[in-house]
């Protein structure tokens, strides 16, 4: 790991290139795009404040996600863990009728993820959607790998239960 | 992605982690709009750390050179005024470059954003359905199940559904406590402006089942709507006070509406409401409807009408006689004959008797025509009755 602090220009380049991914990640954590935008805004403020602590350019995404997760936890703490206000995606054109069921299913899966407890949702989003490895997730969340394994197991079990009604063949 | 330790026995549905992840990746969230990204980029422009430039350092350099000069000047002996001091201007050793232009946004292409056309293309009826395909077939069923669960958990929705299914649901079937009725009332008043169609009718009927006076303003508003009038009218006619009933009766414009409304009034047990029937018979607009209702109702207000027959107001007496003439009951005939014989100069009982078709009435009228003391009264009654007929009825009478 390099101990040299990152240059300001390099940080600027990294932040701008990771901005869409950061908004997408924040939207998945918060359930809606406006809360996601607020969360990224808060994260950018924290990045600008503590960028000198960042060392290794290769792990910028992990570092940024860590900041986003911490900012999200602070916001969730302030809202006393209120249920997420889930926003359904709003395509520019109405979907054809044959895609209605597919869209409803996708929205329902998103709702199931939004109903997970905060830590389980973080693990699922990081592993399944951001495709981070278990060690990377452990670093982002500042927990042990074993902890990530067990949280992931519980989250998947719960999601299987929630989605079970969709996966049993019915007449 | 790394897979975790699995405990397949306690899983409700047998599905590998990979299959579950594949299903989960179908989840859809709203994408960030260019507007949002633009706002965040501007925010980052404001916050981002910048490389120090000569513009930002020149005041520091000026202060430093001033300080150095002051120190040197202080350190030199006063006699050495002729000592040459070379006040070199302090320039930065390296002129910093202007900040590089920000790189353009690079939109990441993520695996979970790949169009799933490949997966669809491989779909065929010859292979087992994937989890996604099975799930898709269950979306509509699951939606219906969720709706059922929602209705079962909500007393208001439960009653609305029950009323929608059973049109004949009566107050006797409504077995909620007073507290529950109040809650249902509040919920109904909340939902009413947000509902339409059959649901609105069901909520209107629910309000009638609550039997709460607080529901009456809302019920009157529903009665004013043509779509929900039928759902609430029967209940309202039973519970509203007479002035409100009169107000409601004025809104009945067509003949069939008048008949239906007056029939409901006639069924009310209180005399005050029954007198509205009499009032209707006194007006040209409602007279015919009042006569038909009096003829067809199962419980005609006979006592009230006989009482009105002795009223001081001639119009009231005449209206009562018209209505009594419509009631097909031999006991009414007997009482009318008795009144007519006791006061042969009074024309009102004769108005009622002329209208009646039974043998006793016919016989008495035949006798009266040949009696010179009564024939003039009978003629007056006949003329008065004819004055109430419409041109069509005139034609039929002739």
Could you characterize what this model shows?
The complex is a heterodimer of chains A (171) and B (398). Chain A has 171 residues and is an all-alpha fold. Chain A has two domains: 1-84, Rna Polymerase Sigma Factor, Chain: A (Orthogonal Bundle), CATH 1.10.1740; 96-171, Winged helix-like DNA-binding domain superfamily/Winged helix DNA-binding domain (Arc Repressor Mutant, subunit A). Chain A has helices at 8-30, 33-50, 60-78, 100-114, 118-129, 134-141, 145-167. In chain A, helix 2 (33-50) crosses helix 3, helix 5 (118-129) crosses helix 7 and helix 6 (134-141) crosses helix 7 (145-167). The longest helix of chain A is centred in the N-terminal third of the chain and has 23 residues, at 8-30. The mean pLDDT of chain A is 84. Chain B is mainly alpha-helical and 398 residues long. Among the domains of chain B are: 144-240, no CATH class; 241-398, Leucine-rich Repeat Variant (Alpha Horseshoe), CATH 1.25.10. Helices cover 64% and strands 0% of the residues of chain B. Chain B starts with 16 loop residues before the first helix and ends with a helix. Residues 1-11 and 87-123 of chain B have low confidence and may be disordered. Chains A and B meet through helix 1, helix 2, helix 4, helix 5 and helix 7 of A and helix 1, helix 2 and helix 5 of B.
> What assembly state would you assign to the polypeptide chains in this entry?
heterodimer
Largest sheet of chain B: none
Mean of all residue-level pLDDT scores of chain A: 84
Q: Report the C-alpha radius of gyration of chain B, rounded.
A: 47 Å
| Spatial extent as radius of gyration of chain A | 18 Å
Question: What structural class should be given to the helix and strand makeup of chain A?
Answer: mainly alpha
Strand percent estimate of chain A:
under 5%
In CATH's first tier, which class of the largest domain in chain A applies? Mainly Alpha
The number of domains of chain A: 2
Q: Biggest sheet of chain A: strands, sense, closure?
A: none
Number of strands of chain B: 0
Tell me which protein chains meet in the greatest interface and how many residues each side has: A-B, 68 and 62 residues
